[in-house]
Description:
Layout: H1 3-8, H2 14-21, H3 32-35, H4 40-58, H5 60-73, H6 77-91, H7 101-114, H8 124-132, H9 135-138, H10 142-153, H11 165-171, H12 173-198
Helix pairs in contact: 2-4, 4-12, 5-6, 5-12, 6-10
Amino acid sequence: xxxxxxxxxxxxxSAVIMGNYVGDFVKGxxxxxxxxxxxxxxxxxxxxxxxxxxxxxxHPVVREAKNKxxxxxxxxxxxxxxxxxxxxxxxxxxxxxxESLLAYSDRMxxxxxxxxxLIPEAMIPMSRSMIRQDWLNSYATFEGIDLTFNRMSRRxxxxxxxxxxxxxxRKNEEFYFQKFRTFFPELQEISAAFITENVKRLN
Length: 203
């Protein structure tokens, strides 16, 4: 899943939100020895990020979506499906959150700015760009998704072809939406269960 989903699945604790948000930029095992002096809600957020990714990568419905994207885009299909699913989450945000996407995005940007000290140094430029360019709200439109793929295409040579991934979403939007609609409520359930088990016991 991409940024919007990871944020929404984090619950309401700022440190958990930040851990889930930065998860891709914190490498290595999260051993007790390594994290003993870290904010433990932040650590729970990092672990939640990995739990979400593992559940997503192993889900049969997600694999169906990846296989269809792979017919056109090969090995970067997983990255593309993550963005497709954030598009549907943003487009139908009122089905999953009591706040509007605009209000929620503004609140998350404030959380991120206030807790920038928890963001790995390598991620800070991207995080600031996300806020400045309002990525979270942009996910709700085809034009915003095209901008997202264009940005990603400049990050590495193997991602060059991703700039055209919006065409596949336009062509088969209903197929991917059905996969998202089946999968995301399950992801919400397992994320909420993880938070209940691993975060609430810290308080």
